[in-house]
Amino acid sequence: MRLVTALFLGLIFGAGITFGGMINPAKVLNFFDIAGTWDPSLALVMGAALVVTGLGYHFVLRRPAPVFEAEFHLPQKRSPDPALIGGAVLFGIGWGIAGFCPGGAIPALGLGEGKAFLFIASMLAGIWATKLLRRG
User: Which regions span the lipid bilayer (predicted)?
Assistant: First the structure.
């Protein structure tokens, strides 16, 4: 049941990302082009996502435990550290260059978007490199 639920929720997320236009790199890049062809529509998508997430946390965290786990696994740190800041900066730079974030690139794979395959390969290489650096 856990896997079916994850698949169902992933499909809903992918449909929302697709419907919101976040799998289209041109639309994403236009969102970042404030001085040029700025398209503010993605701000509405992100704002709606924040509202849904906020409401979700409000109701879910009132439960004694998640449905498929014994306890909630929430971050214990309350302040950002250099790794978090560096990762956020790299994420933003990559999003601005490629026009993809992981949430938008994965549904774009299903549409055969060639740039999405390159983005996902680069993202996996970055994850692998990070793991290597953290070990050493």
Answer: 41-61, 82-110, 116-133
